[in-house]
Every structure is written in structure tokens, then in C-alpha cells.
Amino acid sequence: MKTEDAPVLIVMLTKNDHTVKNASDIFELCKDTSAQYWGFKEEGIPYDEMKKLFAYMKECGKTTALEVVAYTQEECLKGAETAIDCKCDILMGTVFYDSVNELCKKHNIRYMPFVGDVSERPSILNGEIENIVSEAAECIRKGACGVDLLSYRYTGDPFTLSKSLVENTPAPVCIAGSVDSQEKLREIKEIKPWAFTIGGAFFDGVFGDSFPEQIEFVSAYIKR
Fold it and tell me: Using a CB cutoff of 8 Å and minimum separation of 24, what contacts does 100-106 make?
């Protein structure tokens, strides 16, 4: 996975950790924006609709990601199988399990698991920074492509956590969840992760009036 000059925006068609019902309509409206990476969650729309939307994203030349909010091995494996069935490029989320990792390797899917003590839905993140950094290193050592960090769902200091993880993880880090202000975008520019996700904030109109306008604003801001 290439490290870009500026953090990559992954547009998530989600709100409160669920895919929005009109995800297909939103993507149709925004497919010609500069956003290359698109994704959504494993819950919120019917399975057949998920497959159809991911297939259409691929037809449009997009890089696709499924983010799975699951914690048991059974649920996480199911999420991986969904990503495989939908021919996604990246599986984000899940708790790291060797079985999920091996399944992703077998099907050439980039695996970026959650790190830290993640729970609930919408998810929250607990844990000591040192332990989260160590867990990320272990995931990478075992073959994960990178890690999914819920920085702004962290119950501690998100900036210190994010900076420590990015500086000490020799693999892509995606900052995911609750990126909903220009101040957080400024922090992301300073931290320089590989990528970050925005979902709910776009639906709340935090960065502009229309969905396409917000995507272009954030894309331009992060590159300035």
C-alpha cells in the first residue's frame, strides 16, 4: 500500500457505525469527485445491495473498503467473508484474529484491524497508549497490512495516541471515526497517517452544504 504525500481520505457512507440507507444514491452523486477510496460498514443495508454497490464502485475505478465493527472471532470471520464476497480491496476493523488474517492473505485483501480495547457500537476505544502501540506492532509482525485506529473515539488523549502510533508503526495507519472538525483535520495533517475516514460529519454537513462540496473541501484542505 503506497504511502501518499498527504493523508488519503476514505469516504465512508455511514453514520453511527451503520451504512446509510441511501448509500447508493450518495455515491452516484459523488462518484466524479476526487475521492478515490470509498467504503461502508457491514450493517445497515441488505447484503445484495452491498455487493451491487461495491461492484459499481469498482466499475467506477474506486478503491473499496469494508469496515467491520465486530469483536468475536465468528463475527470477524463473517465480516472477512463478506469483504471477499464483495471483492473489496481492504478489510478494516474487526479484532485481530490469525484466522481472519489468513483468510485475507488467501484472497489478497489488505487487512487493517482495530487496535486497542474496542467495544460497543458506535465503537469506543480504551487502553494505554504503550499497549496499543505494541499491539499494532504485533499485528504488523503477523502480516496485517496496517491498522485501523479509532483516534477520536479514544477515552484518553487522541492526539498523543495517534502521533505515537504513527511514529512507531512501520505500516499504514488509518485514523477512523468522528473526524468532524477542521481542528481534527489540522491534527491529521500534523500526524500524517496513511489515511483517515469521514462518514457521519459529511451527512451532518460539517464541511459544507453539499456532499460533493464537502469531499472536495476536505481533499483540498488536507493537501494544502
Answer: 100/73, 100/76, 101/142, 101/143, 101/144, 103/77, 104/80, 105/143
Tell me how many domains the chain contains: 1
Q: Pairing between strand 63-68 and 37-41?
A: parallel
Q: Which domain holds residue 151?
A: 8-223
| pTM given for the model | 0.97
Check residue 22 and give left, alpha or beta (phi > 0: left; psi -120 to 50: alpha): alpha
What's the CA gap between 108 and 117, in Å, rounded?
Answer: 27
Are the C-beta atoms of 17 and 40 separated by less than 8 Å? Answer: no
* 7 within 8 A of 194, measured Cβ to Cβ: yes
Residue-wise DSSP of 18-72: EE-TTHHHHHHHHTTSS--EEEEESSSS-HHHHHHHHHHHHHTT-EEEEEE---S
Strand-strand pairing, 8-12 and 37-41:
parallel
pLDDT in tens, 61-100: 999 999 999 999 999 999 999 999 999 999 999 999 999 9
Residue 90 lies in a domain: yes
User: Which residues have a Cβ under 8 Å from the Cβ of 65 and sit 6 or more positions away?
Assistant: 10, 37, 38, 39, 88, 89, 90, 91, 92
The CATH code of the domain that includes 23 is 3.20.20.70
